[in-house]
Amino acid sequence: MLSPSRLYDLSLSTGESLDLRKNCERFLRELVSTADLTTAGVWLRHRLLIGEGSSFGEEVEATAVLVSGTPPVWFDTKKIPLDHPVFTHLKEQPNLSVGASDELFVDVKIERKIHSGVIAVFALGSLGFLHIFSSDRRGAFSAAELRELGRVVSKFTVSIEACLAHSRVMREVALRKRVEIDLQHREEHFRALIENTLDIILVLDYDATIVFAGPSVERALGYQPCELEGTNFFEMVDPDEVTGHFQNFLGMVKEQGEAPSVEMRIRHAAGTWRILAISSNNLLSSPSVAGIIMNCHDVTERREWMAEVEAARKRAVEASRAKSEFVANVSHEIRNPLNGVIGMASILLESDLNLEQRDCANTIRVSADTLLTIIEDILDLSKIESGKLKIVNEAFSLSESIEGCMDMVAATAAEKGLELAYLVDGAVPDRLNGAGARVRQVLLNLLSNAVKFTESGEVLVSVSAKNIESSDPDVDLLEVHVSVRDTGIGIDPEGSERLFQPFVQADASTTRRYGGSGLGLAVSRRLCGLMGGRIWVASKPGKGSTFSFTFRAEAIEEETGAEMAGSLLDGKRILAVYRNRMMRDALSRYAHDLQLHIATVVSISEALTRLDSPGDFDAVIVDEAAFGTAGRLEFDALRDLESQMPVIVMRWAVPHHGSRRPPKTGALVLTKPVKPAHLRSVLERALGLESKSARGPVEDSSDRLVMPLAQDVRILLAEDDEIGRKVALMMLDGLRYRADVAANGLEAVESVEKGGYDIVLMDLQMPGLDGLEATRRIRAMSLPTQPKIIAMTARATGEDRDMCQAAGMDGYLTKPIRKEQLQRALLDATAPADSDALPVGNIGVDEDRLAVLLRTGGRGLVADLIDIYLDEMPGRLDQLREAVENEDVETVRTVAHKIKGSSSNLGLPEVASAGATLENVGMNQKMEQVDSLLNFVVMAFERARLDLEAMTEKWSSGEHQ
């Protein structure tokens, strides 16, 4: 039984603490002692403990929480869900007691591992419940005991409510204090921002009265904030700007929100003017601000700096323009005398000269060409630096570009005995759309350097490519990688870093020994950048160098004739004798592309061993260097071999120092540097596989080209410079043209007005009336037929070309003028628009002479004449070589005369001139000069042969039909 006195004492001690946990712990401790209980626990709803709608962020769980329990180890959990059975039973009766035998025992027990004893549960109003357990009792608490305990529990419930109320009050107080502290911190934060901001903060009323001025106004404008508050903002604005800004302000007052930023001139307290960038926000409707907030940033120094930068930019532009103008003027002034030097040297070389005179004239021309190259490099560098260099994309042949560059360094390579070859990866298309002219410029520079700095060994050009992403999905964009490897002097790492800077070479000794301006690589680097690529070098001193560059280009899809061309040689077996490994590899690649089977050996003796079995090979190719180690017996064996199969000898057009001539045989000659197309042509000729039907039928006379003869073309030369006039007239005379002369632009206009000229060669810079204005006046005339006007200028800029085109000119020649360029321009000007004209640009071919042949006999006849000439010339050259060795002066003179005549008839002035000179030397019995002069004949023939073959190939492919 419960002791009433003890329950009374328990009742008195209840609620002595407002701390919920302490209150519960004390009550439970006294209750366990008073009622002889094993455990007791207070369970309260979770939401009551943290407060309804608490702003502290705790999650309100649908659970009841054990606030206090004694001893705590008896409880399985400290949280139970609100749908626990104990809550269900408490709704039916607020106090209940069950024993272990009662079926409700399991529902209301919370303690763990109890299977006997008595449990009593008391509702604590809506707060939760009190759970007690006695393991010693045998029966449930009686109704009287429950009532007695219930009264004590009711008082305990009131104390819990008091504790919870106190907790809520304390929470609210803490929350308010936290908010107050936060507001205080925020206020201090914004006050610090306003007081320390570099910008000026102003608040204006609707009538522009300043109601607040930030402290920074003193630092920026020299005013105390109190001096400005109450004044009108526009009193500080520059009077010249007030009207416009005030109208904007009135519009801003009517519209809520931000206004566009503006700049105003504001008067400083010291009387000076400051420029403020002002951002405004209309918050007149906001009760906390009720004004227009202005954030003013002082941009005076920035505007002054920008003005200085703009002035500096204009000065730089003007300086760049002046520099470009200076470079162009220097180029003009140098090109004018160079025009005379190069022109006269070229004319001299076409005349009858002895060997010493020809050597002097050639030295003059080469020196002038070198100077011209330096001028071109300086001009290119100037254009690049000023951003005026234009990259023109065009369709071009990669192989033709490489071969053209190799031809230009071939003579120097031959003199040094260097091997020269190129390899193009099979995946690289030959036809590309890109900056072909600039690619050739960079490649020629690298090849020239490679040959210049290599005394012995080889130079190899390698090409590969990879696809890169393009913005146009229909474009096949490539990054082409070109490398030029040599076995020259090499470069140390420090020199490599300086190489691509203007006017810099690897070291001073390089300049002294090899010459050069050091501009070529600097120009090449910038050109590569403009083409979307780069340039670099890998080198070791004494081991050679590899210069590489990349550029971007579009692949052009085309149907090539490679398969058809290769089918004639398909399966043919070739034996090549070459000591140089690089050339053996190159020949193997070329042979593979031509569908040939090729075997390579390093000596003639090894080749003769391979040729013991007849029928193993269809032809033999022998490099002239192999004869340097061959004996007489091997020479004889090679001569005997010609009766069984064709023997082709590879050699330079100009024998280099120390080379040994091959034996006198009837072998065909394959001229170095070896090119795939030339290799194919020579092999087809050697094996009798040439197709005569490819030339096409002879045209009907009504369809033949009718090109005006030189004497039928009326030309006016407008040139104020006496030397320039003389050079141009002599070149025209050499081309069998006649011209009238005008000394200035005004005379040119008057001459055109009086007489009917077909072509006007117009210098641009002439006194009184320049070439551009003269052209405009001529174009404004009412003439039966307007002449073709071709500009001649020593200025070489893109702007000049554009101005010429805009003025109405038809062509453009840059001084110094080359004879072949002049000839090409004249042919272009006189050829009918739909004519079947000759391909322009063949340096070794006189197109005027061939045009007459075409007009007379058509393509068929001309093609036959070319074939006969190409078949006869190798034999005649061999006759010359044999005559030179035997010192047979009469044979030299006779054969040279034949070469001169046949070459002249076919329109090959360079070969004819070389033959005439050789004939003259032979007549004078000067055998000591014949050997060297023979080289000039061979070189001239090789150039003419390439041009003729290219022309007939174009005819056979139907390009001009």
Q: Can you give a write-up of this model?
A:
The protein is an alpha/beta fold and 961 residues long. It folds into 6 domains: 4-172, GAF domain (Beta-Lactamase), CATH 3.30.450.40; 197-298, Beta-Lactamase (2-Layer Sandwich), CATH 3.30.450.20; 390-558, Heat Shock Protein 90, CATH 3.30.565.10; 565-689, 3-Layer(aba) Sandwich (Rossmann fold), CATH 3.40.50.2300; 708-830, Response regulator (Rossmann fold, 3-Layer(aba) Sandwich), CATH 3.40.50.2300; 838-961, Up-down Bundle (Four Helix Bundle (Hemerythrin (Met), subunit A)). Helix content is 48%, strand content 18%. The protein is built from 30 helices and 28 strands. The strands form 5 sheets. Strands 12, 13, 14, 15, 16, 17 and 18 form a 7-stranded mixed β-sheet that branches. Helix 24 (771-779) links the parallel strand 26 and strand 27 (788-793). The relative contact order is 0.05.
C-alpha geometry: elongated
Largest sheet: 7 strands, mixed
User: How many separate structural domains?
Assistant: 6
Instruction: Catalogue the unreliable spans.
Output: 53-57, 506-516, 560-566, 691-709, 833-843
Descriptors for this entry?
alpha/beta, Beta-Lactamase, Heat Shock Protein 90, seven-stranded mixed sheet, six-stranded antiparallel sheet, elongated
What topology does this entry show?
Layout: H1 4-13, H2 20-34, E1 39-45, H3 46-50, E2 63-70, E3 79-81, H4 85-92, E4 95-99, H5 105-108, E5 118-123, E6 128-134, H6 143-196, E7 200-204, E8 210-213, H7 216-221, H8 225-228, H9 239-254, E9 257-267, E10 273-283, E11 291-298, H10 300-349, H11 355-385, E12 394-397, H12 398-416, E13 419-424, E14 431-434, H13 436-452, E15 458-467, E16 477-486, H14 493-498, H15 508-514, H16 520-530, E17 535-540, E18 544-555, H17 562-567, E19 573-577, H18 581-593, E20 597-601, H19 604-610, E21 619-623, H20 632-641, E22 647-651, E23 668-671, H21 676-686, E24 715-718, H22 722-734, E25 739-742, H23 745-754, E26 759-763, H24 771-779, E27 788-793, H25 798-807, E28 811-814, H26 819-830, H27 847-885, H28 889-906, H29 909-923, H30 927-956
Parallel strand pairs: 13-15, 19-20, 19-21, 21-22, 22-23, 24-25, 24-26, 26-27, 27-28
Antiparallel strand pairs: 1-2, 1-6, 2-3, 4-5, 5-6, 7-8, 7-11, 9-10, 10-11, 12-14, 14-18, 15-16, 16-18, 17-18
